[in-house]
Amino acid sequence: MNHYTLDDFGGTMNMVSDTLDDAIAGRPASFSWRAMLNGRPSTTSERRRFIEIRPVLDFTALMPGKAATDAIRSAASDLATQYGARVRLTGPVAIADEEYATLQEGAFVNTTLTIVVVLTILWLALRSFGIILAVFISLLVGLSITAAIGLALVGALNLISVAFAVLFIGLGVDFGIQFSVRYRAERHEVDDLHQALIRTARYAGAPLTLAAAATAAGFLSFLPTDYKGLSELGLLAGLGMIIAFITSITVIPALLMLLRPPGEPEGMGFTFLAPLDRAMERHRIPIIVCTGLVVAAGLPLLYWLQFDFNPLNLRSPKVESVATFLELRSDPAIGASSIYVLVPNEEAVKAAAEKLSKLPEVSSVKTVESFIPDDQQPKLAAIRQLATVLEPALRPDPNKKPPTDADNVAALKAAVANLKQAAGTQTGRGGTAAQPARRRPRETCGRR
Q: Which of 89, 95, 101, 98 is nearest to 53 (CA)?
């Protein structure tokens, strides 16, 4: 039998006294059985609890889980004020909703700025409202066709493949600009709309075809990867380049015939750059050779090129759902980055555990046997002995009437009297804790 002194219960009595003082003073009061039994304050991971919820999603809304999220936050609002609890949401639904919310917050500003920038570039290059309108309409038509065909092919867009729209606008508008700039140059030479368009098609068709094919091939090279988001982005972007080329050589000429922009009285280009243009034409072979050498010199660096395949890194770490997940992932005990391996027998378990434990990326390996404690029989006997003592208090006889307030007050007074009697004139930690008149600075479980 173990013997304990009054000092051994000093931390427990301090915890009880502090809790009662807070309750009497109207402050939020709490008492941790874990902290009392462990003899130390609970850690953050020990106080954390998980509630797994499967919300009803509304896929007609931009944020399908918003209604469920609002309901959870409303239900949890009282926890923060009454109990000091902190409720944080994470998981696929919360992460996706907050990502789309982030996109929605800046959607109007970003869209407006994009349109302004594109129109500014078009004006600097074309200087004609009719030609700009033709290129802009062609761009919208091509984007709509690409989106329709893309959705038919992939079914639904994800956070990576949706970027095809940005690529289409940024690169697809170049085909329209090149065609229209060539048209302006030809219109200056031949003041006839129909003949200018024919000459433009004759001289710009081959370069635009080569540019569109090269750009589309670059994006379509993403197709073989098993990374679905990148593969679908390559498919949509490559398809978009082909469609942008087709609309540039069909829709723009048709619109120019309808809009009939005025002729071009002045020549195209910047005259002060003409010497540079002629110099590059004369030395085109050395320029191409030097470019090839620079590219070849940089090829060995591809060996150290790394690809980050984790889409979580594309999300903002400042939003609650992502920040919460990153915090949970940093705790190995939670297992946010864990894997599960199913093997047929006990021998295979040991072999798999040994193999995985040798990997530097693996922090720890647990098997079914890891959850069976050592010296189990003595521990089970101790638990049974403790159960006989605690069971009457934890599971009272339902046939007995519950104690009244008077009974509780009498029991508390008796406990105080017993503590005073046990403390006597002792001056140690236990004696100080047992005497309310000689209160000490607050401490938790005997740790100051």
A: 89
